[in-house]
Amino acid sequence: MAYPTFICAYEKDHNPPLDAEAEIWFQEARVLEKVRGVKNWRKIVWLYDNRVLNKTLAKCSTSTNAW
User: How confident is the model over 11-54, as pLDDT tens digits?
Assistant: First the structure.
C-alpha cells in the first residue's frame, strides 16, 4: 500500500496577507471576550463577523477563480 507524500506547507505562504483593519477588529473582539463580568456579545459577534467577511472578500478578490 502506497502512502501519499506529505508536503509541509505554512498557511501564511498560501493565503493572502491579513487586512490591517480586520486584524484590529479581531484583536478588539478578543479583548472584549476576555473581560471579566458581563460581556457585550453583540459587539463581539459583530467584530468577528466583520473580520471573517473582510478576510473572505480579500481572499475572493485575490483568487483567480470566479464564484
Answer: 777 777 778 888 898 899 999 999 999 999 999 999 989 877 76
Residue with cell 502506497: 2
**What one-character-per-residue DSSP string does the chain give?**
-PPPPP----HHHHSPPPPHHHHHHHHHHHHHHHSSSS--HHHHHHHHHHHHHHHHHHHHHH-SS--
* Burial classification of residue 28, based on how many CB atoms lie within 10 Å of its CB (0-12 exposed, 13-18 middle, 19 or more buried): middle
pTM for the whole thing? 0.57
Which of 55, 47, 63, 44 minimizes the C-alpha distance to 19?
Answer: 55
CA distance 19 to 48: 14
Q: How far apart are CA 15 and CA 30, in angstroms?
A: 22
